[in-house]
Fold each of these.
Amino acid sequence: MKPEIIITARGHAGTMTTLQAEFTAHLLADAPDRAAFLKQHAPAVRGVATFGPMPVDGKFMDALPKLEIISNFGVGVDAINLDDARKRRIIVTNTPDVLNEAVADTALALILNTVRKFPQAEQYLRGGNWASRGPYPLTTDAGAKTLGILGLGRIGEAIAKRAAACGMKIRYHNRNRKDVPHPYDPDPVTLAKNCDVLLVVTPGGPETNKLVNAKVLDALGPQGYVVNIARGSVIDEPVLLRYL
């Protein structure tokens, strides 16, 4: 008999196919009544596969008394209450390194598109403005700028490698100084003061909530750029709106 699991939401098609082949899988996203669904499957469910931001807290865990493992599709586990899982001796896993290179490619594209305004230039060209109004105005040189990486983990290091290849100077702030050839800044404010482009790559969760605040944005200045590939919660968005 296959072990029974709950899948919180519809995820990547290939992963869903594998889970449904290897386990007796119950899809929570299809349940009209979540409480009734959990009660129905509680006696047999031993694992939960999580996709997306749905909170998995102590109340959810207690509804599944035989729960042994919560497996998260993705690196960030901020939607899972790790303290609650630890108290109940429930294993929590994630999928680090799977998308490092893809995310780093996307981050570099966002940096270049923001600084060089490639999307705007393409729209200008496709709109026929080149013939009637002349070339698109010159932008700025990304390679002449300093990239400040807030959170130099695996993905941050992959981005640094790409940005350095474009000629950008790299600085970083991390919870701990790393053995890397880039200058270290002791806090986000100092990092913002010393860079032109602030790239946010931190985990989400309470520890980083509104980490990029008014002090950081003031230090970055009106000519600075913010590129966030982390959770939206890392930036104080109401404050950010005042700077736009």
Note: The radius of gyration is 22 Å.
Amino acid sequence: MSRSIVTKPTVLLKEKAYLVIREAILNETFPPGEFLSEKLLIEHLGMSKTPIKSALDRLETEGFVTVSPKQGIIVRELSLTKARDIFELRTALELFVCELLSGKLKHEQIQELKQILVKQKAAADSGDEETFTKRDTEFHVYLCHCSGNAEIDQLMLNYQAHLYRFALRVIKRVPNRMFEAYQDHEQILNDLIDGDTNQSMHRMREHLNFGKTILTS
């Protein structure tokens, strides 16, 4: 009994520290290349060293920071190689998903995807890049979830934070990209509903290749 009372707050603090630091990295409050210190993070989060160290270990494993005894804590740059590798992997997965789901989306899945698009359009209209990017990533992750393939679903969830980081970088670099991306998603969904397999796959390939080109050129 005493063990659960003691450890539960610690677990919650570890998770909170992880989420707050990761969000700051994704939104570039802590930009790539920035040096962080445990002292700064302790002050920023109002936590002790233990949960912050645990969060940093997890973020290092996921490729967001480098922790070195000599250099300290550094927010990792977006690796061109990693971006290329992830885009090539997700392109293969999402084209397969388009082929699999063409003409086969369930009513409730279509409604969920349409709701994501409504939120995406609202974010674009208000110029909210971060919210738009969250909905953008959600569209792709949920579409893969609709495939019913647990391995694809898990892979997309594993890469979700990286997908967000890549998408936000593209949106910040390209004027009007929010509206273009929204229109791409809307057309892809309509193609899937209509059962136009070739067109949905073509649009998805073009949509993903655009992001890959912007990030790796």
Note: The beta strands are 35-36, 65-68, 72-75.
Amino acid sequence: MTKQSKDDAIIKVVLEYFYQQNRPYSIVDIFNNLHKEYGKTAINKAVLDLVEEKKLIEKTYGKQKVYVINQASMETVSNDEINEMDKNIANLQNELKTLQSFCGSVESEIKVLGNTLSTEDAIKTSDELTEECAKLEENLKKVKEVAKNVSPKERDEVYLNLKKYVGHWRKRKRMGSEMINCILEGYPKSKKQFYEEVGIETDEDYNVTFPDLTKFNIKT
């Protein structure tokens, strides 16, 4: 390749780069952006030749010189072409949303499948539940047998004792509440703070309630 042919090749590469990027660059920028494939001197000569041919415009900012493609040489885009590009962009955006939605559905399905028991695990779980049900049925059978052997007299004695103990429970709880209310009349803090400081635990703290004696036909 002759020197002139080589210079023309560099000019073509530089001009094509300016067309593609359509933004200002210094000589050093072009040299680096072309991956130092051409010497800085050759790049400088190509740029100056393009300026002389009015294909590039030279702009000076202080001591810095930059070069930009002559906008008069750029192809103009009609409104119809712009509208067509806008339409293509809108179509691509819709396709992107569709693909994102599809990917989301696939990911959700994969997650569900990942949490689903395998056939082997399902069989194992079924066997364990069957065994547990058999044990519960056996225990229920034993309880029913014991219940049959309890005489009406023994049952009545248990119910009466239950009534007595529930009565004591209610009485002691009422007495305790009355004592606490008397103390709280001169206590500077809230009832909750008093309970916390003294360390009082209530039935309500443990969701304990009085048993329903009506189902045992016992009048309280």
Note: The radius of gyration is 46 Å.
Amino acid sequence: MDKITLTIAKREHAGNKNRFLRRDGVTPCHIYGNNVESEAIQADTAALEKVISTAGGTRLVALETKSKKPRMVFIREIQRTPVGSNLLHVDFYQVKMTEKITAKVPLHLTGEAPALKTKGRLLVHPLRHIDIESLPADIPASISVDISILSTLNDAIHVSDLKLDSAVTLLTDPDALVAKIGETSVKAEVEETVAEAETGVPSEDGSEESGGDS
């Protein structure tokens, strides 16, 4: 997996003056961590957007400067404008590579479930991520869940069925449901049938009366 890097600089401005940074294509950021002194920094907005897209919240990012050793961080919080979704601020959490941390790792469904080829079947997917503990370098970007093993009604995949590296400790309940083949409710099927049927109501003699004028 390629190393993700981002060039940063110390931020001199704060408060309302940050708007001038954003106007010039620079985003104000912050670094913090366990036993790490909080520091105000800034980064090129275009470069930062690329890092956010690639790293998400589960891949390590090396923050580089001209004078200091790279600082290994995770993206912890991203603030954007309500309109336009433009970057306002980003928080980075600095880690020690020799100390374990906890993280939420997203689950990524792969494959096709044969059971879904049967009419009236649906995929129930209540769990979108799991909690783990590991060294920073061992945190997976995501965990693949192969749903091609779901072939019949009520087939299910639980957290205990996931394949995790031995360096990763699972914190989520192993019995938690990840995915299951269910069926559409009778009510939903009736509503769908009614929606597809022609508009009209039965008259007293059993014939249909149109809802509109003739």
Note: The radius of gyration is 26 Å.
